[in-house]
Amino acid sequence: MKEIYMDNNATTKVDEAVFEEMRPYFCDLYGNPSSMHFFGGQVQKKVDEARNRVANLLGASPEEIVFTACGTESDNAAIRSAIEVHPERRHIITTRVEHPAVLTLCRNLSKRGYRVTELNVDGEGRLDLNELRAAVDEDTAIVSVMWANNETGVVFPIEEVGKIVKEKGKGAFFHTDAVQAVGKIPINMAASTVDMLSISGHKLHAPKGIGVLYVRKGVPFRPFMVGGHQEHNRRAGTENTAAIIALGKACELAGQWMEDENTRVKAMRDRLQTTLLELIPRSRINGGQAERLPNTLSIAFEFVEGEAILMLLSEKGICASSGSACTSGSLEPSHVLRAMGVPFTCAHGSIRFSLSRFNTDEDIETIIRELPPVVRRLREMSPFGREFLNA
Ligand code: PLP
């Protein structure tokens, strides 16, 4: 069975060219870039090249790139740095729809006495900038607002957010979790209000276990990983050289594929969306009226469980994901869909397709063929579904 992989917001295939780029740095060129000898030096050169490649994709300078182990670490490093730099400020602002990498940390900090404001979103997943404007004050240490949502693909107006933070925060830092945005939509730090930005390699065809924190030049930074002098004292620990080199290549390729992502990949997503809405009654798009990433489709089917759809699709080789997380034995709809006020019946029946450049029209046609009968079959098995089908 050939798999159809449409769960790219969870993780992506390592591009073969990326793998080839990193391959020599395991068994042959395994030197430590901090070593004085030529053997370490040649690795250091490749790490420098990777830093340049990441910086190019972001419109940043190489000195602003700090390699970390993952997106989660980058998010933690940014927020922890801000509260260290501003110990007198006790207010943190984020949104209700952030990834747990940000949300869990903020909620933990609220238990340690920080005032945490979680901004609301509307039914389409959009931020209310007036709520932000009212919330930011001179007690705010950091505002952390994601660039694009991993579940719905909804894109936040990051530069407008940044303007408000700068205007009202008087020194408050602005961090964005851009883990889902980088490589999918253009980002230019040279003309941005963002102070710190997180990236994760495995979301853009690099391996797992590598991330970046962009730290704008001049922004004070206190590392929470301390030890050696790596990354100009901003992240201690011997560099994961092969993965850094891989991420550099992945960023170079992401720049080259950006147009494809926003034309061909988007057209595939749009065809899938339009056709499923046509073929499956009582279906709706989560965040459909908002600006979204070109690759993401979160679609809700009433009267069915998303997990049941996923299991049946999985039997046919189709990999997607659901909007629910299984917590303590009960199926809780995702915090993102709940924050959007998506009715329970829809939130439970939501699934997410997230495409990449490796998907094809044939993949889309297969899903269009296989999914409608799956939803119908599940509706026939549920009392509300049967009632709806018989009405
Ligand atoms: N932030 C967002 C928006 C994500 O989607 C993810 C991963 O799903 C992360 C952070 C965490 O990244 P990592 O898996 O590299 O820790």
From TrEMBL:
It comes from the Bacteria. One of its GO terms (molecular function) is iron-sulfur cluster binding. Belongs to the class-V pyridoxal-phosphate-dependent aminotransferase family. NifS/IscS subfamily. Keywords: Iron, Iron-sulfur, Metal-binding, Pyridoxal phosphate, Transferase. Its EC number is 2.8.1.7. Residues 4-366 form the Aminotransferase class V domain. One of its GO terms (biological process) is amino acid metabolic process. It comes from Geobacter metallireducens (strain ATCC 53774 / DSM 7210 / GS-15). It is an enzyme of class 2 (transferase). This is Cysteine desulfurase. Catalyzes the removal of elemental sulfur atoms from cysteine to produce alanine. Seems to participate in the biosynthesis of the nitrogenase metalloclusters by providing the inorganic sulfur required for the Fe-S core formation. Pfam families: Aminotran_5.
